[in-house]
Amino acid sequence: MRRGRLLILLALVILLGLVAVLVVYRFFLAKPQEAVQPTQPPPVEILMISQNISKGTELNSEMLASIPWQQSALAPGMYRAGQINEAIGRVVKFDVSAGTPLLTSMLLSEGETISQAGSPWSLSIPKGMVAVSIPVSRLSSVSYAPRPGDHVNVIASFLFVDVDTDFQSILPSSSGTVIAAGPPDPVTGTRNPLTVEIAGGVYGRTIIDPVLGQAVFLLPSEAQRPRMVSHMLLQDVVVLNVGDFPLTDAAAQAQAEPTPAPAEGQAPPPPPVPNVITLIVRPQDAVTLNFMLLTQMRPEAATQLSLALRAGDDNSRENTLPVTLGFLLEQYQIPVPAKLPYSLNPRIDNLTPLPLPAAQPTQ
Questions:
Q1: SS3 letters for the chain?
Q2: What is the pLDDT of residues 47-77, one digit of tens each?
Q3: Do 328 and 230 fall into the same domain?
Q4: Domain span at residue 172?
Q5: Is this prediction's pTM over 0.70?
């Protein structure tokens, strides 16, 4: 009996010792494992155009070179360096500049021929898409940052007003006075027609003053204020060209009448800044942009278009919300200032933006 108790006590001591050793090793002796850092996949070699190539040229090995490219930035249709034999002998559809990655869309497919008529720019437009030009300024075009091949978003801003449904004129409507014809003519017995005198007044509304308890006729103190809204109209739109396209006749005339060389020590004049940009869009989007253009061709445009430049490898779409004054106050928690018994002097009625210096185009 006594021997059994000793065995049980010895087993408990051994068990406690093992637990103590495990705790010491776990918390004091064992080295913490370093977190495994995700490794970026190694870059791959892709084919690049090594020299300027004109439309209809057949590719050879001297026109191609391989460059490293991140796998996360690979675009559909890029040629790997190991596919150089598949690219040699293919014919390019349009002029390609040196340093451009080679894409399958640049090359003619089997049985396809180059059209000798028409614009070479049409070869850059995918089937089912169209090109539309819109006016741009320094601010609406991201300070002239977009280049052909870039992806942009198109933001549209509108001004809305209330109009009379029947007259289709802006509210409030003007009032007039109707003058009755009076009694009939004693000789002929006929009545003169009713006449309307335009008093030039504005149609208002009547309210009951809560203090005086009397009816008060209210008139607007100014014309109706438009309500503005901005929204993302188009996303992930490809830029076909920035500025005007070169014309064959203009190029021939420029060659016949070359511009004089600048004087010694005088820098050549900078190129003109672009005022239009051409986008590749769906046919329905082209009709939408045409509607927007018609509303802009006025001294006081009712709509405005602006561009936002996207990342080169970003083709995602985001559900954006239209922005109004109420949206700004709620989304960004902007408080409406309280009416205080003091104010600034002199008074500030308008926020005038700082004038921007004239744009200085670079060479």
A1: CHHHHHHHHHHHHHHHHHHHHHHHHHHHHCCCCCCCCCCCCCCEEEEEECCCECCCCECCHHHEEEEEECHHHCCCCECEHHHHHHHCCCEECCCECCCCECEHHHECCCCCCCCCCCCHHHHHCCCCCEEEEEECCCCCCCCCCCCCCCEEEEEEEEEECCECCCCCCECCCEEEEEECCCCCCCCCCCCCCCEEEEEEEECCEEEECCCCCCEEEECCCCCCCCEEEEEEEEEEEEEEEECCCCCHHHHHHHHHCCCCCCCCCCCCCCCCCCCEEEEEECHHHHHHHHHHHHHHCCCCCCEEEEEEECCCCCCCCCCCCCECHHHHHHHCCCCCCCCCCCCCCCCCCCCCCCCCCCCCCCC
A2: 888 888 877 788 888 888 888 888 777 777 7
A3: yes
A4: 162-178+200-223
A5: no
